[in-house]
Amino acid sequence: MLILLFINHLFSFVYNKYMVKEKQKDIGTIFFQPYARIIPMHLTIILGSIFLLADIPQIALVIFLLLKTAVDVIMHSKEHKK
Q: Which of 31, 44, 47, 69 could form a disulfide with 64 if both were Cys (CB 3.0 to 4.6 A apart)?
């Protein structure tokens, strides 16, 4: 699985670095992009503490992974929209 993950990221890097010509990005967009990843992390900390107190920390991990995956898919589709 690690080899497949590495190959996938290597292909993505090479494709985006050398084959895709980037257009100029808006400074406001660049400034606010990290918040799409920060908000799920903080929601997980806040909501996950409830599950930690209930002694079921696995649910906090699942919440974080679901939120992070959803944000990653949305950001990836926006970034590579043609």
A: 44
Cα–Cα–Cα angle for 5, 10, 16, rounded to 5 degrees: 125
For residue 78, the surrounding DSSP H or E stretch is helix 57-79
Q: How far apart are CA 34 and CA 57, in angstroms?
A: 26
Report pLDDT digits (tens) over 3-54. 998 999 999 888 878 877 767 778 887 888 888 778 878 887 887 788 778 8
For residue 13, give the 3-state DSSP assignment.
helix
